[in-house]
Amino acid sequence: MIHPLDSTSTIEYGLKLEDRRVNSDFIAEQKNISGWEIIDQIDNHLLYKELIGSGYVQFSGKKGAFSYQGGLRGELTKIGIEDRMGTYTSNKNYTRLFPTLNLSYRFNGNTTLQGSYSKRINRPSLTMIYPFNELKDLSSRYVGNPDLNPSYAQVLEISFLKNTKTFTFNPSVYYQRNKGIIEDYTYRNAEGLFITMPVNIHKETRSGIELSVLYNPLKWIQLNTELNLFHYAKEGSYREQTFDFSGTTLTARLSAQLKLKDKLSFQTIYNFRGANATAQTHTNAVHSIDFGCSKTFLKDRATVTFDVSNLFELRKLSSVTTGADYVINQTNIPNAARYRLTLVYRLNIKDNQAVRQAKTGNRN
Q1: Intra-chain end-to-end CA distance of the chain, in Å
Q2: Distance CA 116, CA 8 (A)
Q3: Distance CA 162, CA 212 (A)
Q4: Buried b (16+ CB within 10 A) or exposed e, 91-107
Q5: Number of C-alpha atoms within 13 angstroms, CB side, residue 114?
Q6: Distance between CA atoms of 279 and 283, rounded to whole angstroms?
């Protein structure tokens, strides 16, 4: 609900209820001479229930060139875990408050200075929670951890925004402090099998510089660059493993779009994630190229689109994990190049009606 307080300020509030459940009944067997045999006692049924209730209130206003927005969100979470074998059964309840504050000052119509503070929550994905994963390798295995807790981040950011007719320049600096971060832990069990599972460790601090540049030198061409250079430092331990580690890495996204005559357009995107490391694992840089083109015809009634993700099959995940008495080298190719051809035909379109298409992109 949004209510104006006066001509320059408003109050907004609301409630939200979210229910997340994982219900899995999993068994892994292999056939031998005497028949089917269960692998590593993987025969269980898990029910994970997470109920999240939240409410928020937010104030916003403006005075001259100065604008502000402040809010507070409260969250109550109840988690219940049950399984047939009694391995993961537990209940957890927690309540958290998440304040936010955004301030901005507009120097003129094209230049703005902004500052913000926020507290955020990062819940584990279902893949991290799910304890029974597909057995693709008999020497190593990824196992989810239903007992994972969410991590919490406090983020401070200062940014500068400059807009002109052909150019947008948006640099920012930030500091982020994360508590209870989720980290992959790899160990070798008594049978010599390598197990990787997500665990919570103490904290991570991160400071960096982001840069976003949009350039339109001509009406028919658009160039976009997004960079994120940051330093991170992790602290914590789990069992006998110490996770204290620090490093610097870079992520980038470069794109170009051409809009030619007769409603023909092309777009290409280059994605890059720099090498990074933890106390156990060094991951090599990952890069990929996506490409697409489209043509609109028949008086804007039809559009044909051709796009390719992971062009030249460049996207490869390569890592080295080092333990006290072992070294694991892994290379994964999650997806080969994918080609897609799409035809859209619009019925009952009116003359001179604008057609709007939504586009999405990934940013790490």
Answers
A1: 32
A2: 20
A3: 11
A4: eeeeeeebebebebebe
A5: 17
A6: 11
pLDDT digits (tens, 9 = 90+) for 216-245: 998 899 999 999 999 999 999 998 899 999
> What are the tens digits of pLDDT across the range 37-51?
888 778 888 888 999
Side-chain half-sphere of 176: how many Cα atoms within 13 Å?
A: 19
Q: Residue 128: phi, psi to the nearest 5?
A: -70, -30
Contact in structure between 294 and 308 (CB atoms under 8 Å) = no
- What lies within 8 Å, CB to CB, of 203 at 6+ separation is 177, 178, 179, 180, 181, 234, 235, 236
Chain mean position to CA 254: 18
User: Which domains, and CATH codes, for the chain?
Assistant: 2-243 (2.40.170.20)
Closest to 184 measured CA to CA, from 175, 196, 170, 171: 196
Question: Judging by beta carbons within 10 Å of its beta carbon (0-12, 13-18, 19+), is residue 329 exposed, middle or buried?
Answer: exposed
Question: Which is more confident, 95 or 191?
Answer: 95
* DSSP letters spanning 55-81: EEEEEEEEETTEEEEEEEEEEEEEEEE
Neighbours of 191 (CB within 10 A): 7
Cβ contact 204:235 at 8 Å: yes
Rg (CA), the chain: 25
CA distances to 78, 131, 133, 156, 363 from 47, rounded to whole Å, are: 14, 11, 15, 38, 33
Partners of 220 in the β-ladder = none
The burial class, CB within 10 Å (0-12 / 13-18 / 19+), for 133 is middle
78: three-class secondary structure by DSSP: strand
Token pair, residue 93, equals 């309840």
State how far the Cα of 295 lies from the Cα of 308, in Å rounded to an integer.
16
Spatial distance between the Cα atoms of 255 and 66, rounded to a whole number of angstroms: 33
What's the pTM value of the predicted model, to 2 decimals?
0.83
* pLDDT over threshold 70, residue 165: yes
CA atoms within 13 A on the CB side of 96: 18
